Amino acid sequence: MELWYTENYTDTVKFSIKVKEQLYTKTSQFQQIDVFDTYEFGKLLTIDGLVMITEKDEFIYHDMITHVPMATNPNIKSVLVIGGGDGGTVRELTRYKTIEKIDMVEIDKVVVDASREHFQITACKLDDERVSLYFEDGIKFVEGKENIYDLIIVDSTDPIGPGEGLFTTEFYRNCYKALTEEGILVNQNESPYYEADAKEMIRASKKIKNIFPIAEVYQAHIPTYPSGHWLFGFASKKLHPVKDLDAQKWNDLGLKTKYYNTDLHVGAFALPNYVKEMIETGAF
Amino acid sequence: MELWYTENYTDTVKFSIKVKEQLYTKTSQFQQIDVFDTYEFGKLLTIDGLVMITEKDEFIYHDMITHVPMATNPNIKSVLVIGGGDGGTVRELTRYKTIEKIDMVEIDKVVVDASREHFQITACKLDDERVSLYFEDGIKFVEGKENIYDLIIVDSTDPIGPGEGLFTTEFYRNCYKALTEEGILVNQNESPYYEADAKEMIRASKKIKNIFPIAEVYQAHIPTYPSGHWLFGFASKKLHPVKDLDAQKWNDLGLKTKYYNTDLHVGAFALPNYVKEMIETGAF
């Protein structure tokens, strides 16, 4: 018997991974969570049949969603993570001694439970004393909050299901208010390559641009996400992710990273022309 | 009936593309050449069951294999292309009025014939008057040549079958000799992500480093190649691809490109730590 996990990138494009065994499956109030052991990628966490993280390359996503804002502003002390139930984003954040407080708001406790059981590689710092876990709706959590967080990271699923509200103008506006004077908002922002993903990215970028004075998009090579070309949004009240980067200061911290470095930080904001054009014109 | 083209990235990872119809198949003296019409990627050219180019994203590969060396040295006049039977590399080169002579050496005439018939998008400039086509073995072609080419582009298949000899020390040494004083060698250099590909990349990089004083690796997002994270080798006698880039000069040419721009040129050389480490230590 052969067991294969297959993700449909479009109706006519599929990515398939041979599975040793299924380790976990549960349908929560919000979504279906599965964990597989695979030959190539080690353990694989999926939500509603989409790859969230794999042991082999989770470091790429988590490096890029945390170290880019942290290097842009090394004075960040208070962080809100929305989503990120696997814990990888929190793990990277806890490496900064300067961070005093991390609120993590994950709507689905089952994702955290599954990760604690099968993904210690990412969930290992969820009990750090600076971390407060809230199993709540992130959209409601930010409502009414003012001037509290130096950084908000939206580590969400795709904009379908429970993740949908995390891609709305109202949510971004509430994030703006919840941020301090030099606040930064980072969000995972889909791929520019397949039409449905790209259109979500374009929509999200447009909304963010209308609210934040600085709104940029950056990219990473994540082989287990559709197309392998993945984007993140960087929105900010004051600091520019390239012009205000103090590379020396970040390098002096001596953090070892497998993907991120400060040259790559700058390079990640140099988008291909076709992606820049998409964002500027709003057309795929 | 459903027709799917499937490429095995490893024994346990597959990428599948739904096909409208097969347009062409021929087994030449060297390899099997197929052309498919697909829903997502338009036409698809494969050699021995591996994606060479698709209509949807060939521009990424061809932009990165030509404009990076051309922007580094805008005085390039004489170019040798080895492989590249689809014509896309030659198409991009012919956009430079300053190039006087392009020799293209493709071992397999069948690839050119198939491309002329089905890939006018890439083959459209093969009859440019500056282009000389040689259906010969590129390895033998460079033997004994001295101080002739300002740029050699190795636009090869993977290092199995007829492409194998294009990844040897002897071949790189002959390229060095065939190059002029400021000569540049660019080669497609596999992916860093899957073990077999990465090991080829490491081997090739090491050999090139032993011969050329400047040897760098750069990357691009090519969604239809394994992992989507693709590398190119840049080797040079004198010019450094980042330090010697005159971005203004290239931008003054006014060439429209869908992927390449001079910021991205610099960013492409900012490799992730795990890739840098692989190249430095020689270990996957």
From TrEMBL, chains A, B:
Catalytic residues (positions): D155 (proton acceptor)
Family: Belongs to the spermidine/spermine synthase family.
Gene assigned in the entry: speE
Name of the protein: Polyamine aminopropyltransferase
E.C. designation(s): 2.5.1.16
Subunit structure, as described in the record: Homodimer or homotetramer.
Organism name: Crassaminicella indica
Residues given in the record as spermidine binding sites: H62, D86, D155, S156, T157, D158
Pathway: Amine and polyamine biosynthesis; spermidine biosynthesis; spermidine from putrescine: step 1/1
Residues involved in S-methyl-5'-thioadenosine binding: Q31, E106, D137, G138, P162
Domain of life: Bacteria
Pfam families: Spermine_synt_N (PF17284), Spermine_synth (PF01564)
Keywords on record: Polyamine biosynthesis, Spermidine biosynthesis, Transferase
Catalytic activity annotation: S-adenosyl 3-(methylsulfanyl)propylamine + putrescine = S-methyl-5'-thioadenosine + spermidine + H(+)
InterPro entries hit by this protein: PABS (IPR030374), PABS_CS (IPR030373), Spermi_synthase (IPR001045), Spermidine_synt_N (IPR035246)
Function: Catalyzes the irreversible transfer of a propylamine group from the amino donor S-adenosylmethioninamine (decarboxy-AdoMet) to putrescine (1,4-diaminobutane) to yield spermidine.
GO molecular function, one term: spermidine synthase activity
Domain named PABS: residues: 2-237
CDD domains cross-referenced by the UniProt entry: AdoMet_MTases
